[in-house]
Amino acid sequence: MRGWRWIIGAGVVGGIGVVAATIAWPIGTPVLNLTLEGDVQRGSYLARSSGCIACHTNFEGGAVPLAGGAPLKTDFGTFYPPNLTTDVEHGMGDWTVEDFAKAVRQGISPDGDPYYPTFTYPFYANFTDQDIADLWAAFQTVPAVNVPAPAHEVPFPFDQRWGMKLWRAAFLTTPDTAPEADRSDAWNRGKLLVNGAAHCSACHTTRNFAGARIVAERFSGNDALPGGGKAPSIRSRDLVSEGWTIDDMAYALRSGITPSGDVFGGSMAEVVRYGTGFLSDADLNAMATYLLDNKS
Amino acid sequence: MKMKIWIAAIAIGTTGVAAWAHSGATGVVLERMQGMSAMGKTLKTLSPMMRGQVPYDADLVRSEADAMVGHAGEQMTRLFPEDSGGGVSKALPSVWEESEEFAALAEELKTAAEGLKLSAGNGLTAAQSTDSGSMMGGTTDGMMGGGAASTMGGGMMGSDQPMTAEMFATMPADRAFAMVAQTCSVCHQKFRKEDK
């Protein structure tokens, strides 16, 4: 009779121990002094490419720049992209550039807590120090807004941030942005953008039970976007078989107009209007070049 | 008698084919799908011209813009009566839940299409740099810009200065065209079910 009580007792203590250890488990790598001078224009451009403005500005609700974005409704709860203005209390006003670097490239807050992957930080892991410096310079130009974004509405157990450390251990991948020697400059630039800043596969890839992208199904589309829309396949083989050309794709990313004369709706309309519509012709051409000719 | 039967058969057949082409839609749902397709055809016809890929034809721009006007404004909203969503319709509930905004966008589309017609004689933006970021406002207006095509003080939903068709009259046609597409985009973003 006594035996099983010991087992349960041991289990509970063991469980608490595992949780405590996970909470204490330090993550991330330290960021050394970032002293590079940032360029605001380059930084703004990168912020557009990366979707910072699109996600962290609520265009439906006042459109105050970077003061916090529209809610993202997922299976794990509703997430509110936070205030990224220079406000000291509710924004990044009291951050250092090293804090910023760690947040963007590693997904770790200044307090050492992991961010939820609704923040597409995994795609930004290969940003250079100069990229970070440029972004930081651009973010310094955003007027302070002394209103916090709403807190995430995430039920137990997903509200346990330490759980994200386990998620990271299981699912965090580094993006494939390295140039390939036998490819054109445009293709390589496209690869860098598509797999990095532009984070296309964040929406265009099916996710597993834990909300992590299924790597083997990269670009194959997603029937369950936050808020309920669908993202079609953008795998090269599918784009090509549907008759897309590089020119068509670049034009669509610029204007939202598809080869059939349709206009992107849903989230893709926002991607174009607040993101890709700001990119240079050369970059859109590069992205299209890569999208139509990668191994997917 | 035979003639009437033939006419009836052809009419039924045509509607049947149209319905089949639009997932079995009938009535207003079919009509509005056809209206949308017609406007898509306008974009498809005019895009290559606006991109400088085929010779510019101001008359064609005018006639296509005119066709679009005929599908916009009240000609669009009258096809969305209460309870006509669901089934094969791609209209989201927001069409009726936020009917004022929907109607306003339909009106904006009409204005933009009329504006495109007025701008037709202006031709395209002078072909200068290869960086045609100007089409959708590609300059980086710092971190603030409200939208890639926020030209001329906005004019899209929620901004302070609604555009009138006359404001388009001095615009290059490709700019006006971009604003038409922009309106399509804003409406599709909020009111159309994306399920491809």
Task: Name a few traits of the molecule.
A: about 300 residues, mainly alpha, 12 helices, B: about 200 residues, about 55% helix
Short description:
The complex is a heterodimer of chains A (296) and B (196). Chain A is mostly helical.
Descriptive overview:
The complex is a heterodimer of chains A (296) and B (196). Chain A has helices at residues 2-24, 40-50, 52-56, 97-106, 129-139, 162-171, 185-195, 200-203, 236-241, 246-255, 266-274, 281-291, and strands at residues 72-74, 77-79. Chain A has twelve helices and two strands, in the order αααββααααααααα. Chain A has 296 residues and is mostly helical. A two-stranded antiparallel sheet of chain A has the order 1-2. Chain A is globular. By secondary structure, chain B is an all-alpha fold. In chain B, 55% of the residues lie in helices and 0% in strands. Chain B has eight helices and no strands. In chain B, α3 runs antiparallel to α6 (99-119). The longest helix of chain B has 24 residues, at 27-50. The radius of gyration of chain B is 19 Å and the shape is globular. Chain B starts with a helix and ends in a 5-residue tail after the last helix. Residues 128-140 and 149-160 of chain B have low confidence and may be disordered. Chain A binds chain B through residues 40-41, 44-45, 47-48, 52-53, 59, 63, 65-66, 138-139, 141-142, 229-230, 232, 251, 254-257, 259-270, 272-282, and chain B through 39-45, 47, 51, 130-133, 135-140, 142-149, 158, 178, 181-182, 184-189, 192-196.
